Amino acid sequence: MSYIPSGQAERKKMLDSLGIASCDGLFQDIPRNLRFDGDYVSVSSKGLSEFEIKERISATAAKNKAYKAVFRGAGAYNHYIPSVVRHLASRDEFVTAYTPYQPEISQGILQAIFEFQTIICNLTGMDVSNASVYDGATAAAEAVSMCLERGRRAVIVSECVNPGTLAVLKTYCNAYSAEIITAPQKDGITDINALCSLTGGNTACLYAETPNFYGLIEDGEALAAAARSKGTKFIAGVNPISLAVLKTPAEYGADIAVGEGQPLGLPLSFGGPYLGFMACKKELMRKMPGRIVGQTADKDGNRAYVLTLQAREQHIRREKALSNICSNQAHCALTAAIYCAAMGPQGLREVALRCMANAAYLKDKLAGAGFKSVCGGDIFHEFVTESPVPASKILAALDKKGILGGLEFGGNRILWCATECNGKEQIDGAIEIIKGALKNA
Question: How many structural domains comprise the chain?
Fold first, then answer.
């Protein structure tokens, strides 16, 4: 990425145009007691050279621990990202991509968002997608707000959803004076019978995830039928990679589909930035938060792109706004679109199938080592086991060898994950380390 810093002459010209003598004048409205009055460079007040800065940053970066293998998911997944994705997404004309505020803004940005929306609709089977929101948890919470109506202020949430998503849902519902009712699970799957007894006339929607937090594939048709029987909308939380092999939310009757778009070409990056995607049936599109880019034709008949719906507080009266989200993850959405275009439908399917195969192999190997499967049912690429010894000992042994093991939770339970990056050789190596830890324990 090319960047040429401004010199003293350019800085003076900019300050003169503002009528300011020095850069300190830019901060004159900030009270003196709130300003930093120390030395920005701890080593020398003269600053550091570019070479010295690079050395210091490299030394700081070396403190990070880079794992050679990752067997943890729980909402963020280690997938292989083709080099073309990063090369294209890091081009100068793309790195400044940001959410457009006017319908006539850069056609390039609008087309990129339109392509992302189209891809999300293809993956979910839904009619309309927005330009993205902050992350998967935010997408789920915004979808719930789409369903709330006068007299319908109860939200049923499966006990099997990601705890992080549930926490965000609770925050939103508290602000909306909406009640969250938990649908219990049975053997790691939402209990449909219990769910049917919970839904009533005051229920706005049902939110469930498939695959769920335990890695199990839920019965989408049964969940949608349970919601419909009580006149309730069904929001499906989905993994975008899994949609290459599993039924789409539209196929099993969901009204809204949401999820975390990180698996679509975004690195783990210590938690972000990530990408929340949302798609819904056509009859709900006017309740969709954020904005939607549409394709049209200009006065000369040429293809053009415009912002079509922007139901947010900056465009309409605040009390009538459906959401206060004033931005979107434009560059993350662009990256996801590039990844999907590079992979193609067959490539995504191959990634999904490889994930399933590697997870099945890992699960079998762990069972052979004495790890009991906690939940039955079909899995995509995650599953839960009970460790025969304290889970912390197993994970510590893996960590010592540069391997990030599964997520420990609920005593000795471990949530494991395998993606296309975890081949047979890598799994066999991890199993040998685990067997050694079992002997030592």
Answer: 2
